Amino acid sequence: MKTYFMSQDLWDIVDSGFNNPENPTMEKLRQLKKDQQKDARALYALQQAFHDTTFPRIMGATTAKEA
Description:
By secondary structure, the chain is mainly alpha-helical. The chain has a domain at 26-67. The protein is 54% helix and 0% strand.
């Protein structure tokens, strides 16, 4: 999975997560939106990779890092 995430430029989000900035500027808000989209793509890929019997382990995760 790590290789897949690296090939899709998603590994940094899975490995480190992302932070909501305090006092956000327009640029920080744009970056936050990009990070949230990358996180959603990574979480989707993880959810699709799990078998039905093991999916409950990550079912409640709201971020890729959490999953």
